[in-house]
């Protein structure tokens, strides 16, 4: 049986239905593997009071930093503040609600959400402010913190190559948070560098099966380097 063609003509159409006060998963690590065109389209869309879940908030003036400047993000769930001075400023001033989560725990919360697992126990964070207000239990001789899974209304994902049916391949470290986030949202939107006809991808190389992908759009990427270090 033929699959469903997931291709969407524009980034704006790909975000149809994304409205105020929604929760949005955004793939990437720093500036590596971020859905930069979808974020620019979200900026133009103007949706506000968003809860955004991403490893960090990138840098000033690019990627998620643009949504911080436009005050479209109400709450940020991330593993660290990173290199974004505006993110730090809004956090310290109380303008932005920030939930800092250990990086491995954040990844597992999203993976669990995609797998239909409502919560899990982890030793990470026990005895620290991370565990405040959360259920804890002892298994054997170790103490654990219960962490609830994360799901979202939309996931904005950056892939390398996909076929019409939404089967996606990521390139190298641009996998980072993208594969787990693609499974954990009601609507998953993927932008890629190349779209090929069905049958052109090796099934053994596919990272995200098309069953998880709702919309697919072709993008052109700037791919900024967050920090460049050269020898003297």
Considering the chains and any ligands shown, give keywords for the structure.
Glutaconate Coenzyme A-transferase; 232 residues; seven-stranded parallel sheet; alpha/beta; three-stranded antiparallel sheet; 26% strand
Describe the structure.
GO terms for molecular function: transferase activity. The protein contains 6 helices and 13 strands. It is α/β, with parallel strands linked by helices and 232 residues long. It has a single domain, classed as Glutaconate Coenzyme A-transferase (3-Layer(aba) Sandwich), CATH 3.40.1080. The protein starts with 10 loop residues before the first helix and ends in a 14-residue tail after the last strand.
Topology, element by element:
Layout lengths: L10 H4 L8 E4 L9 H10 L4 E4 L10 H6 L3 E6 L6 H9 L3 E4 L2 H13 L3 E4 L13 E4 L2 E7 L3 E7 L2 E3 L4 E2 L8 H5 L2 E8 L1 E3 L18 E4 L14
Parallel strand pairs: 1-2, 1-8, 2-3, 3-4, 8-11, 9-12, 11-13
Antiparallel strand pairs: 5-7, 6-7, 9-10
Organism: Scandinavium hiltneri
GO molecular function: transferase activity
Protein name: CoA transferase subunit A
How many helices in DSSP terms? 6
CATH architecture: 3-Layer(aba) Sandwich
Overall helicity: 10-25%
As laid out across the biggest beta sheet, the strand order is 4-3-2-1-8-11-13
Radius of gyration: 18 Å
Distance between the termini: 59 Å
Sheet with the most strands, sense and barrel status = 7 strands, parallel
Q: Per the principal axes of the C-alpha atoms, what is the gross shape?
A: globular
Q: Class by helix and strand content? A: alpha/beta
Our count of domains comes out at 1
CATH class value? Alpha Beta
- Unreliable stretches: none
Pfam family, one: CoA_trans
Keywords: Transferase
GO molecular function, one term: transferase activity
Organism: Scandinavium hiltneri
């Amino acid at each position: 049986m033929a699959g469903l063609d997931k291709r969407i003509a524009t980034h704006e159409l790909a975000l149809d239905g994304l409205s105020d006060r929604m929760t949005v998963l955004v793939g990437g690590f720093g500036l590596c593997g971020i859905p930069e065109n979808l974020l620019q389209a979200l900026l133009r869309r103007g949706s506000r009071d968003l809860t955004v879940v991403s490893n960090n908030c990138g840098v000033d003036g690019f990627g998620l930093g643009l949504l911080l400047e436009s005050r479209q993000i109400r709450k940020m769930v991330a593993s660290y503040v990173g290199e974004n001075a505006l993110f730090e400023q809004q956090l310290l001033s109380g303008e932005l609600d920030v939930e800092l989560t250990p990086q491995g725990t954040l990844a597992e919360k999203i993976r669990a959400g995609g797998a239909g697992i409502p919560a899990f126990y982890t030793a990470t964070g026990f005895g620290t402010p991370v565990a405040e207000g959360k259920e804890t239990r002892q298994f054997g001789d170790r103490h654990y913190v219960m962490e609830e899974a994360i799901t979202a209304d939309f996931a904005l994902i950056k892939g390398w190559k996909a076929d019409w049916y939404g089967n996606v391949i990521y390139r190298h470290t641009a996998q980072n948070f993208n594969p787990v986030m693609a499974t954990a949202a009601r609507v998953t939107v993927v932008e890629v560098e190349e779209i090929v006809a069905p049958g052109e991808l090796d099934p053994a190389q596919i990272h995200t099966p098309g069953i998880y992908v709702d919309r697919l759009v072709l993008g052109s990427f700037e791919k900024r380097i967050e920090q460049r270090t050269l020898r003297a």
